[in-house]
């Protein structure tokens, strides 16, 4: 008995897979934002104009937005293991090859290729959790993975600059490309599409997950219910757009705002730019954990998801407005950090909703949801910059961002994760009789004969 008690606890297979996915989010986000850090050096070395550098920056966003639904659908259809392997190879090769780029056209092409690879990655990763994470752990899984993404964004400047200082900007891309390809190998060895395919899984853990043998294979033969998914996901997509609008402001305009509007020098800029991003790391982890905790305590899934969305968007709004009006630069950074903390509380819940609502179609649903973020990425930085140029101030674009947070907060109240596609399909199967949906009492009625008119689709009854 004493020997049994001293034995170390066995790490659960789903937690190993979760750790591998966290590493993917971390690496992929560094690959995404490293161009912003190396951009000034690349511009100087290649003699690029501001317009050419802007073209290189924007080449990522458009395939990224398009690949959201495409990548998610492919994961639903062919399985996340195969699809994410291909996607990670694409973005790994693109990152590696960027280190050998010699022209603007090649840089644009490789950033476009990176957008293709990473565009479908997060929806595919969401689909990967469908059969590996129980309902009560989905919020935590999405929170911890996205916190690693934010952590990747926070460590990119010092990490990339350290490599650039010792070997040049090309070495930074080559090393990151090798890291991405190494992750692909790790993923191939560790991940399987379902628990029943994994050699390490135990019956006890399979029961904890709630997986039933054959669920994964049956899902492959199901046609994607596009209309049902759009009907249930459009509101989540809209809320994600409101969330993504402000997030893109942080990712693109924060350094410029702190320098131009708040007067920080370059040394201060490195610290004060990282603070809000680090606050987002905590917010991501806390948001998913909090939602799961509320669900375990109350058993009310809708309350657990919607309450965190409302608190997150409302809290971000509450700190964004005084940030605009305060005169103290350090206080403004603290308000920005608090606002971003609450904003990121909503992120894991938004990514959990496709799992709750769509189940085996979570890849497609996750792509639909994150399309809102992709569209915000195409619009928000441009509109924000235009408003700064026309008004000469950051106050107006930040106020518009605050208004979108308020609209998103109201919209979040109407999201219902209990209105699931699986429940709808089960109800239709139950209601449908053996004669194509005929009620059972009519099937047994004597003297009735069913015929289909040769010119019309509706069924006709004759005695």
Describe this structure in words.
It is a single chain. With 463 residues, the chain is an all-alpha fold. The chain folds into two domains: 12-222, MFS general substrate transporter like domains (Growth Hormone, Chain: A, Up-down Bundle); 225-423, MFS general substrate transporter like domains (Growth Hormone, Chain: A, Up-down Bundle). Helix content is 78%, strand content 2%. It is built from 19 helices and two strands. It has a two-stranded antiparallel sheet with strand order 1-2. Helix 3 (50-58) runs parallel beside helix 6. The model is unreliable at 1-5 and 440-463 (pLDDT under 50). It is found in: Cell membrane. This is Putative glucarate transporter. Its main location: membrane.
List the SSEs and their pairings.
Blueprint: H1 2-6, H2 13-46, H3 50-58, H4 61-78, H5 80-98, H6 104-119, H7 121-128, H8 138-167, H9 169-190, H10 203-209, H11 215-220, H12 226-260, H13 266-298, H14 301-325, H15 329-358, H16 362-391, H17 395-412, H18 421-431, H19 440-443, E1 449-452, E2 459-462
Antiparallel strand pairs: 1-2
Helix pairs in contact: 2-6, 2-8, 2-9, 3-6, 4-5, 4-6, 4-7, 4-16, 5-6, 5-7, 5-9, 7-16, 8-9, 8-13, 8-15, 12-13, 12-15, 12-16, 12-17, 13-14, 13-15, 14-15, 14-17, 15-16, 16-17
Membrane topology: Multi-pass membrane protein
InterPro entries: MFS, MFS_dom, MFS_Na/Anion_cotransporter, MFS_trans_sf, Sugar_P_transporter
GO cellular component, one term: plasma membrane
């Amino acid at each position: 008995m004493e020997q049994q008690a001293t034995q170390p606890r066995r790490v659960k297979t789903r937690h190993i897979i979760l750790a591998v996915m966290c590493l993917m989010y971390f690496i992929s986000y560094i690959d995404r934002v490293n161009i912003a850090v190396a951009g000034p050096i690349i511009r100087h070395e290649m003699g690029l104009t501001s317009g050419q550098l802007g073209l290189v920056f924007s080449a990522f966003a458009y395939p990224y937005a398009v690949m959201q639904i495409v990548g998610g659908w492919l994961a639903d259809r062919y399985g996340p293991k195969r699809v994410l392997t291909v996607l990670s190879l694409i973005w790994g090769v693109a990152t590696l090859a960027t280190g050998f780029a010699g022209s603007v056209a090649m840089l644009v092409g490789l950033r476009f290729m990176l957008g293709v690879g990473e565009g479908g990655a997060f929806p595919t990763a969401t689909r990967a959790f469908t059969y590996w994470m129980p309902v009560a752990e989905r919020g935590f899984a999405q929170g911890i993975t996205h916190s690693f993404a934010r952590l990747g964004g926070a460590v990119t400047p010092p990490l990339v600059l350290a490599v650039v200082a010792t070997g040049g900007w090309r070495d930074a891309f080559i090393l990151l490309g090798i890291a991405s390809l190494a992750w692909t190998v790790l993923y191939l060895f560790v991940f399987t599409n379902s628990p029943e395919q994994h050699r390490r899984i135990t019956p006890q853990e399979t029961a904890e997950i709630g997986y039933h043998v054959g669920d994964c294979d049956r899902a492959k033969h199901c046609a994607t219910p596009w209309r049902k998914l759009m009907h249930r996901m459009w509101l989540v997509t809209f809320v994600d757009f409101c969330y993504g609008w402000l997030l893109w402001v942080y990712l693109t305009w924060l350094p410029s705002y702190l320098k131009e509007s708040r007067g920080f020098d370059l040394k201060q800029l490195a610290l004060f730019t990282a603070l809000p991003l680090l606050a987002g790391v905590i917010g991501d982890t806390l948001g998913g954990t909090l939602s799961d905790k509320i669900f375990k305590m109350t058993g009310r899934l809708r309350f657990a998801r919607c309450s965190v969305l409302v608190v997150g968007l409302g809290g971000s709004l509450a700190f964004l407005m005084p940030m605009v009006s305060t005169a103290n630069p350090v206080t403004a950074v603290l308000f920005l950090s608090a606002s971003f903390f609450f904003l990121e509380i909503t992120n894991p819940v938004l990514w959990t909703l496709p799992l709750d609502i769509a189940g085996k179609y979570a890849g497609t649903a996750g792509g639909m949801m994150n399309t809102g973020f992709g569209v915000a990425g195409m619009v928000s930085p441009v509109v924000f910059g235009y408003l700064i140029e026309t008004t000469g101030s950051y106050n107006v674009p930040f106020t518009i961002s605050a208004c979108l947070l308020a609209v998103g907060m109201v919209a979040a109240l109407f999201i219902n994760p209990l209105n699931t596609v699986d429940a709808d399909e089960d109800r239709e199967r139950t209601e449908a009789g053996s004669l194509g949906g005929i009620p059972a009492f009519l099937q047994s009625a004597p003297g009735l004969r069913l015929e289909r008119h040769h010119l019309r689709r509706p069924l006709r009854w004759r005695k």
